[in-house]
Amino acid sequence: MINIHTEWDPLKEIVVGNIGKWSNIHPDFSFLLYYQDNVKNVFLENSIELQQHVIKQRQEDLDQMARVLSSRGVIVHRPLPLQKLHPFETPEFKDWPSACHNPRDQFLVMGNEIIETSCQWRKRYFENDFMKPILLEQFRQGAKWTSAPRPAMGMNSFDLEHIKTFGNAEKILENWTETPSALEIMFDGAQCLKFGKDIVMNIRTKNHELGLKWLQRHFEDRYRFHPVALTDNHIDGMFMPLSEGKLLINSGSMKSKIHLLPKFLKSWDIIEPKSASSETINSQERGEVALASSNININVLPLGPTETMIFDSTPDGDNPLRELLLKYGFETTHVRMRHCRLFDGGIHCASLDLDREGDYREV
C-alpha cells in the first residue's frame, strides 16, 4: 500500500531495480543535458558499450540488495527486466530502450500517490512500462496512480541554455531555434526529497521549472515546495536526510552550498564523510565512464530513523561511513554495489520506496 511522507520513516515496502539485457548508452544531446555537470566539455559521439561482466555484476548486486531487504521483513518488488533489444521510434526521435535499474528517477511517491514523472532522457521514454505490473498491483490496493505529461521531446522541447558551455556544442545547436513556448514539462522524481509537508526540489532548467509548477498545481496547498539549484538533476547525490534533524552531505560538492538549503534545514546537523579519492575507487571501476559523483557513497537508503543501509564496491563491509554514522547514533546494514558511477546510482537511486510507517505531518 502506497504511503510515503519522509525519506527516513521505518521502511515496509520497496522496489529494487532490474537490468536484464541492457547493453549500451547512446549519448545524444538529451544525455548531455541530463549529465551536464559530470560530462561537461566532453562530447561523446559514439555509443558506450557496456561489458557483459559489468552488467552481470550490477545485476548480482541488485539481487543481493533485494534479498537483504526481504530478510529484514521488507516487501520487495522488482521491475520486469529488459529482455529484447530493439530500436523504437517516435514522431520526434529514434533510440534504443533502457532497463528500469534506477526506478527512483522516473517515479515520485508522495502520500498515497505514485506519479510517473516526465521523461528527460530520450532512451528512457518507455522505461516505465517495466513497472506496470507493480503499478497495477498498487492501484488495485487503493493507491492513486498519476502520470505527469509525457513530453514529445522534440529539439525545441528542451532548455538548451546550459549546453552552450559544452565543447562542440554547435553540432547540437545547429538544428535548434530558441522557442520558449515549445519548452515542455520535464523532471525526475529523484529531484525531490521529502520532509513531511515540505518537499525540496532541485531546479536547473526551464523544463524543471515547468515540472515544479505542475507539481504545485497538482497538489495545490498540500505540500510546500522549496526549489533549490544544487546540481544538474538529482538531489539525492548531494545530500540525504537520515532522520529528522540530520543530513548526510556530499563533501565534494555540497559543502560549499549549505547556504542554498531552505531555511528549515539550516539548523539540522550536518554529517560530512571524507571526500572520496582516486585510491578509494575499486580498480575494476577505473576507466569507466563516470556519470555519477565520486562521492556517490552518500546515496544511502534509510531503513528507519536510527538505521541506514550503506554500500561500497567491496564485499567485506569495511566502510569508513559505517564508523562515522555510528558516532551519530545510526546502525548500518552493508551491501555491495559495484559500478555505481557508471550506472549513475547508489542504493537510493536503485530503489523506490512504496510504503513507510508514518503520517503526513510537519517535520
Q: In the CATH hierarchy, what is the class?
A: Alpha Beta
CATH structural architecture: 5-stranded Propeller
Spatially, the strands of the biggest sheet line up as: 4-1-19
Instruction: Fill in the CATH topology.
Output: L-arginine/glycine Amidinotransferase, Chain A
- CA-based shape: globular
Number of domains: 1
* Order of helical and strand elements: EEHEHEEEEEHEHEEHEEEEEEHEE
Average pLDDT for all residues: 87
Secondary structure tally: strands: 19
Largest sheet: 3 strands, mixed
Strand content: 15-25%
Annotation field: number of helices: 6
Distance between the termini: 22 Å
Helical residues, percent:
10-25%
Low-confidence stretches: 277-285
**Structural class by helix and strand composition:** alpha/beta
CATH superfamily: L-arginine/glycine Amidinotransferase, Chain A
What is the radius of gyration computed over CA atoms, rounded to a whole number of angstroms? Answer: 19 Å
